[in-house]
Amino acid sequence: MQPVNIRSFKQRLRHRKKAFKKFLGHIEKKPPKNLDAMAEEIDKEVWREVDCLTCANCCKKMSPTFTTKDIKRIADHFEIKPSEFKDKWLYFDEEDGDWMNKQQPCQFLDLQTNMCSIYEVRPADCAGFPHLTKKKMVDYIHVHQQNIEYCPATFKMVEKMIDRVKLEKKK
After folding, report:
1. DSSP bridge partners of 115
2. Using the 8-state DSSP alphabet, how is residue 136 labeled?
3. 53: how many CB neighbours lie within 10 A of its CB?
4. pLDDT in tens, 61-86
5. Is residue 34 part of a domain?
6. Do 79 and 29 share a structural domain?
7. How far apart are CA 152 and CA 154, in angstroms?
8. Among 75, 73, 74, residue whose Cα is nearest residue 84
9. What's the first-to-final CA gap in the chain, in angstroms?
10. Which H or E run contains 109?
11. Residues 116 and 146 grouped into a single domain
């Protein structure tokens, strides 16, 4: 497993973002029959190649949404009230109706190690990120279109998916 080179990732993203988003849009409208199985297969390959602890770009550039359950669980972890937790670390996004981090990078990210200080009780959104193998992949295409800009694992998944779809068409 190679460490993630953010500079190289950003460069590749600049060159391929438009094509990747177009490909995902096409897949969303006309998914291959075996899309979910393909995603499962690719997921295993991606995680043999990408080490999140050498990246943590998601924690540095994005904010998870915090559910009521997340807020209660994390507040309990800190032995404070959910309202205190929200006041200290979150804001309410009126447009989306979500609780989000007040700051970036995430206040729970240790920038020296790229490790989460609340990993055991982290938000469900973090635990599931980057959502590569959600059932019914086609329902998460819009999420992948966003995540390719931040997540080398998502980028690699789309890269591999493009190659697989091309191979399938040749058969």
Report:
1. 110
2. S
3. 11
4. 999 999 999 999 999 999 999 999 99
5. yes
6. no
7. 5
8. 75
9. 31
10. strand 109-110
11. no
pLDDT at 26 over 80: yes
Dihedral sign from CA coordinates of 24, 28, 29, 35: positive
Domain assignment present for residue 150? The answer is: yes
Q: What is the radius of gyration, based on Cα positions, of the chain?
A: 18
Domain that holds residue 71: 65-128
Tokens of 55: 């990246």
Looking at the predicted structure, is the pLDDT value of residue 1 above 80? Answer: no
Same domain, 30 and 80: no
Axis crossing angle, helix 152-170 with helix 35-49, rounded to the nearest 10? 130
Q: Is the dihedral of CA 32, 18, 153, 12 positive or negative?
A: positive
Instruction: Count the alpha carbons within 13 Å of 33 in the hemisphere toward its beta carbon.
Output: 2
**Residue 41 within any structural domain of the chain:** yes
Question: Are the C-beta atoms of 108 and 116 separated by less than 8 Å?
Answer: yes
Name the helix (H) or strand (E) containing 16.
helix 6-29
For residue 55, give the amino acid letter.
C
